[in-house]
Write a structure and sequence with these properties.
This protein is of the alpha+beta class. It contains 19 helices and eleven strands. The protein has helices spanning 11-29, 31-50, 54-60, 80-92, 120-125, 143-154, 161-173, 178-192, 202-211, 213-219, 236-245, 305-321, 324-327, 329-338, 346-351, 374-380, 395-404, 420-427, 434-464, and strands spanning 72-77, 96-102, 110-116, 129-135, 228-230, 266-271, 275-279, 286-290, 294-299, 357-361, 383-387. The radius of gyration is 24 Å and the shape is globular.
Length: 465
């Protein structure tokens, strides 16, 4: 077969191969992550058995068959070149940069985006995404240390020459063949594996570590080892309670909104980062480095701008009263009390436009008197409204996960210092607006319902003629 007629692998399929390869690698490198996956599988099976109708609802949404697929991972990059190269590489897998997250407000010297699939079809095929952070050198206040950090990062190349060559081939040819796709996955995975040798000596590592543990993690290694992977659990509170029983040291609190009958946005927890052996440049003896952990997420519905504004206001009020890490169960109780004003029934949430919904025409159900009013159709049972799953992240929650796995004693005094324009310049592209993506998905479903009703009316008119 000529090159011009070669069969190309779909980006969704390449992403599935990549996420599977990453999962296998991480379970091998971090055995405790395998224990976490077993816990999640047990909880999900029990939850499905105890919640009548949930399995059918997940199946309708296309979530049942991908329930056991890892939902996301996270990496930390050091330079604009690395970020731009990552954007091109993830594009081969159908992953686009969505959202801008400024974590500096929580004392973490990075800003971030999430590379993820964006279409309904791509998300249904495989929802895997990578939360990708870029070190903000300007937040290192020690000028000499900042300049040394820049020199160290300038010397490294995190992607293999072959990975970059295959990326360029995919860009020019419109994709990769089966063999090329397998080679691409293997080459890219090499970037994210654990490297037990530091590129700097112990003294340099110590100075970077003292400035901020995350700076040492980003700067002192040949590549951005994946620092966690994340399965989806249907009951994150059960997972939080179950981790210690499996010998897993869980972080203190679940990040995100409180437990609800109808979950919103994203709840996350993790086991604490492991201490791992590292050999420093020019040294015979080994040292220790803390970076990698395992995370669990429970996803709820995507909120509209109005819903998100309400969420942010309620969360800020609770966190201003007492930080989550310091408050424990008392924080959880205050969080639940504060969120009592956020409706927890689907119809109120929908009618108040607090969340996005996907609409489906109920087969063989007569439309309510020929109405085209969506609320009337939903009330009559002619149209079914199902919440759209939130596919993105929460900056406060991400910072909470970061801090809990950096020891909890880090610098927290960075001012609100959003730098989206600089991030997009380094990225080489604008980040997509997650609210616009959900709004478009909701509107597509409404348009499909109205088109189906029109088709039904035309068919009925022809039958009556």
């Amino acid at each position: 077969m000529s090159a011009s007629h070669a069969v190309l692998v779909a980006p969704d399929a390449i992403r599935s191969r990549f996420s599977g390869a990453m999962s296998e690698m991480y379970r091998r490198e971090v055995p405790q992550y395998g224990t976490l996956l077993d816990l999640v599988a047990d909880i999900n099976a029990r939850h499905l058995a105890d919640a009548p109708g949930l399995e059918a609802a997940l199946a309708r949404a296309g979530d049942l068959e991908r329930l056991h697929v890892e939902r996301h991972g996270a990496i930390r990059l050091g330079t604009a070149r690395e970020l731009s190269q990552a954007r091109r590489i993830f594009a081969v897998m159908g992953m686009r940069p969505v959202g801008y997250y400024d974590l500096s407000v929580a004392g973490v010297p990075v800003h971030s985006t999430a590379f993820r699939p964006v279409t309904d079809e791509a998300l249904a095929a495989n929802p895997f995404r990578l939360f990708t952070s870029l070190l903000r050198l300007e937040l290192i206040t020690d000028v000499a240390l900042r300049e040394e950090t820049a020199r160290i990062l300038a010397r490294r190349a995190i992607f293999t020459p072959r990975a970059l060559a295959l990326t360029a081939l995919a860009e020019s040819a419109g994709g990769l063949t089966d063999g090329e796709a397998d080679e691409f996955v293997a080459e890219v995975r090499e970037t994210f594996r654990w490297h037990g040798e530091s590129t700097v000596d112990a003294s340099t590592y110590a100075r970077l570590h003292d400035a901020h543990r995350l700076i040492a993690d980003v700067v002192c290694f040949r590549g951005p080892h994946i620092n966690h992977l994340t399965p989806r659990v249907l009951d994150i509170d059960a997972a939080q309670a179950g981790m210690p029983r499996r010998g897993i040291a869980a972080k203190d609190v679940v990040e995100g909104p409180p437990r609800r009958r109808h979950p919103i946005l994203l709840r996350q927890t993790s086991f604490k980062a492991l201490q791992e052996t590292v050999r420093f440049a020019g040294a015979d003896e080994a040292g220790r480095h803390t970076a990698r952990f395992g995370e669990i997420e429970q996803r709820g519905m995507a909120l509209t701008r109005a819903g998100r504004a309400l969420y942010d206001r309620l969360l800020a009020g609770v966190r201003d009263a007492a930080p989550a890490a310091a408050a424990g169960t008392a924080y959880d109780a205050r969080l639940a009390a504060a969120f009592g004003v956020f409706p927890d029934d689907l119809e109120t949430i929908r009618r108040d436009a607090l969340a996005f919904f996907r609409y489906h025409l109920v087969a063989d159900h007569p439309a309510a008197g020929g109405s085209r009013d969506l609320d009337t159709l939903v009330a009559a049972g002619a149209v079914r409204a199902e919440p759209i799953v939130y596919e993105d992240f929460l900056p406060v929650s991400a910072a909470g996960i970061f801090q809990s796995n950096l020891g909890g004693t880090e610098q927290r005094s960075y001012r609100a210092n959003e730098a989206r324009e600089a991030f997009e310049r380094d990225l080489g592209a604008p980040v997509l607006d997650e609210f616009a993506l959900y709004e478009a998905a909701q509107q597509r479903s409404i348009d499909a319902v109205l088109a189906a009703l029109d088709a039904r009316d035309r068919a009925a008119a022809r039958a009556a003629a």
